[in-house]
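New to this. Please check this fold:
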Amino acid sequence: MPTINIDETIKAWSNLNDTLFVPHTETEYQKLVSFLDRLIDEVGEDESHPLASLMEITGLLIESYESKNIPELE
C-alpha cells in the first residue's frame, strides 16, 4: 500500500479546496452543480477518463446535500 505524502497532499488540496467541498448552503450547492455539469461535458461516459472519479465524488457530494436539504416530491 502506498504511503501518503501529507506535504504533497496539502499542496494539491490547496489548489482544489475552492472547487471540491461539502456544500452547506444553496450557493455552495449550485457551485458544485455547475462544476459537475462541466465535468460531465468533459468526461461524458468515459470511465477511464482521468477526471471520472472526481466527477463521481462531486456527484456524491451533491446527492448528499440534496438528500438532507431538498424535500422529495411525492
Notes: Residues 67 and 74 are 14 Å apart (CA to CA).
